[in-house]
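In response to the reviewer comment on reproducibility (Comment 2.3), we provide here a single inverse folding case reported in full, input and output, so that an independent group could reproduce the run without further information from us. The structure tokens appear first.
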């Protein structure tokens, strides 16, 4: 499972010019599910999202987590995070999970974060979405449950 975490002061996702998810300060999380991912990957990813110390303390150092700042999460599915661009000019998505695998794991990440007490807004799996955000910092980090990077 791969995730792009972007620290934001605000973010929203729209479908057909209708806002379906919006948050204030927190994290925009673009989430890609791989074909071999399991519930273990989803729980690991949710825990990392909740606990990453990427918010500034009073001294301007990355010492605070989403928990510490009472931040929200905008969780958006993005299968293209598993695009393989090593060969040719068109990415291959053969390792992106099919919807019957990806949807329950994507939803589990959201449920785990909600269980931790976070406000979680989402897009719509498989829809053409427009994501807007104000990246705070900017701070953008990559997570991979298989620790590829």
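Designed residues, in position order:
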């Amino acid at each position: 499972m791969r995730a792009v975490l972007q620290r934001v002061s605000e973010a929203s996702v729209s479908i057909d010019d209708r806002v379906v998810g919006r948050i204030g300060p927190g994290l925009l999380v673009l989430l890609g599910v791989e074909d071999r991912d399991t519930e273990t990957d989803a729980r690991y990813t949710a825990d990392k999202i909740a606990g990453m110390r990427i918010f500034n303390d009073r001294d301007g150092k990355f010492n605070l987590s989403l928990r510490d700042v009472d931040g929200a999460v905008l969780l958006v599915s993005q299968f293209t995070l598993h695009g393989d661009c090593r060969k040719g000019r068109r990415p291959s998505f053969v390792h992106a999970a099919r919807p019957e695998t990806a949807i329950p794991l994507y939803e589990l990440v959201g449920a785990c974060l909600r269980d931790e007490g976070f406000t979680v807004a989402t897009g719509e799996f498989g829809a053409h979405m427009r994501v807007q955000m104000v990246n705070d910092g900017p701070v953008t980090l990559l997570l991979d449950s298989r620790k590829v990077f």
